[in-house]
């Protein structure tokens, strides 16, 4: 029996067949609609199953990658070897007084609207962020003056050894678009948000206003990974890119949005390579014209295509 068959057999001992996909195209799971195949794409529906998959990867020395909903991510055209674990089956949202317990596969947008339903304030900023709750913690997602660290009380994670831990917010070193979750190798399973009582109409008014701003300014009509670059100190990335004359330019099917220069869109069947080269083109041009280094906010993972 080959190693691949051994891994598949052990995965089937942990998960039902409908939670395991073999050679799954990852362009089905990314907002850019880009990415090659995953050897194994698994979607466990319990915390115990997540632990067992991690322990299997450790035991068999199999490469292991966590994938959220692919909203702030570029997967290279060569795909990802080993096991890709998605938590999209873990989507429960519970409210207890002013606290909200949200599983990591739930969209942060859905959490913000559940808070609205309960007349709770604190998550309005997240009403337009497309990522999952786990992904939002991973990068301390934020928008319009709010960020995850403002509301996170604690989180349940699985560590590299497959152990279940409950950790306070300050254990994650949450800073601007940063956490220590990737360095620690944590897999976030759920988050506890501490919110405050609000007035339904007031919370809704803020969310309606933020939604209008997002829809009017962002190129939502094309696949993209959202805002590509972090805000450089003293500047706005989109303004620098716009002033560099890059809107409408790109490589292959990828293009710097003419609607919002901070976005690169998949306009015409782009490859991940097109997208990455477009990012590099923007970084080089802004550096040459303004002397500013643009740091990526989007993550790039996976393998280059084989020729």
UniProtKB/TrEMBL annotation:
Keyword Nucleotide-binding among record annotations: no
Major place of residence: cytoplasm
Keyword entries, A-Z: Cell cycle, Cell division, Cell shape, Cell wall biogenesis/degradation, Cytoplasm, FAD, Flavoprotein, NADP, Oxidoreductase, Peptidoglycan synthesis
Keyword Ribosomal protein among record annotations: no
Major enzyme class: oxidoreductase
One GO MF term: UDP-N-acetylmuramate dehydrogenase activity
A Pfam family annotated for this UniProt entry: FAD_binding_4
Enzyme Commission code: 1.3.1.98
PROSITE patterns listed in its UniProt record: FAD_PCMH
Free-text function comment from the UniProt entry: Cell wall formation.
Record's protein name: UDP-N-acetylenolpyruvoylglucosamine reductase
Organism, scientific name: Alkalibacillus flavidus
